[in-house]
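Memo subject: From amino acid sequence to discrete backbone structure tokens
Keywords: amino acid chain, backbone geometry, structure tokens, three-dimensional fold.
Body of memo: The sequence and its backbone structure tokens, given next.
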Amino acid sequence: MLVELIQEVCQHPPQSPQRRKAMNRLLIEIQKLPKLGKSNSPHRLDALNQTFEYVNRNLCTKFDYHQPAVEKRFVQWFNKTFYWRLHDLKYSPKNNKVQFIRLGKAMGEYEDKTLMDFLTQDGFNSPHRDEIDNYIERLAKQEKQNISLTIEKYIIEDPQKILGNCHPRKYPQGNCQLISKKKLLQEPPKKISAIAKELNINYQTLNSHWKRNCLPKLQKIAEDLGYRHE
């Protein structure tokens, strides 16, 4: 199961919605793996988030899922990354110098474990499901923000004139690009009634044009740019 999910993630481009959905499924599966990293450290959540981000960025290039014992090696890779994130968060702000640590030395709060334990054993217990759900939510929110900015840029530039050339007959000033800028991008946004009055167009005419022509075009543009309604 783990191998199939990793393969699914890696077959999609890094910023694609398909990859994000596949990564979400993988993260849910990860939390079921035994002996996965967990800690009572106050830096735990930050370290876990950083580990998820590292896995998200490097899974397909730095983890070889074609070799045997994928689950065991993945847990080792995850735990090693998680531990180093904890270590960095705990010690780096206080001391910017490079610290060399003996492999056999007990590591800070983990009195019964050495660095070698973390590097060569499966270590820890499974993380809380809520923490993975929170990270998935953050990924989804970030993706939506990125898509929103892309759609905003498209409306402003209208590179193919899809919006600018769509307007009621005899009212070129009531084109979808201008309406979208005023209704969606302007702060504060304008209502269709105010836009109709400003452009000297009958309200019913402009409102009908917005709903029948502009909104479907904007929805199509959003889908082409990566937005998926879930």
Notes: Strands lie at 106-107, 110-114. DSSP finds nine helices and two strands in the chain.
